[in-house]
Amino acid sequence: GSTLSGIAMYSHVAREQVKNSDNIHAEQSLNIMQKSAGDMVSKLSDIVWLINPQQDTISELFQRLEEYARQMTSVQNMQVVIDLPEDLSSVHIPLEARRNIYLFCKEAINNAAKYSQGTRIELQAKVDKGFIRFSVRDDGKGFDEITVKKGNGLENMKRRAEEIGATFKIGSRAQQGSNIEMLYKLTH
Questions:
Q1: Which of 38, 133, 149, 155 could bond to 128 as cystine, CB 3.0-4.6 Å?
Q2: What are 87-116's pLDDT values in tens digits?
Q3: To 5 degrees, how large is the angle CA 58–CA 162–CA 130?
Q4: In what helix (H) or strand (E) does residue 184 lie, and over which residues does it extend?
């Protein structure tokens, strides 16, 4: 809603700027509107995908995450590797858990693409003692876990894990990359 309100406001501002022949500022307003509209299309696409019951398998989740990872890493020329065992491909995940796992992994992918300076991102799901371990690993520069924990991204990931009763883990070493994990217990 706030994005649509912003677009409406900037369209009014742009109209006034055009009337006053303030083309430079009008172009800036139009660029903001274009970016906001593009963000809305992406968010709506995520919502439609998430609520579609035919998309509730781990395989479908990983296809969506792989698409996002490839898009995010294309500029950095990072390799995207998917590690999804066949026995997990058809496992179904409830809507709320799928939403949180998806957004958790998106945040981890985004952080790796923006900050790691690595050459590779690996998305993995595997069974681990009655849990499914979802992980996003990079081979980048790593980070100081204590300092980085202050950021919103990791707090959001921790909250997403807690919302579905999952455990959140991070691991990073200088020049050895990072590993962000969520351990989720499937309930049948």
A1: 133
A2: 888 888 888 899 999 999 999 999 999 999
A3: 50
A4: strand 177-184
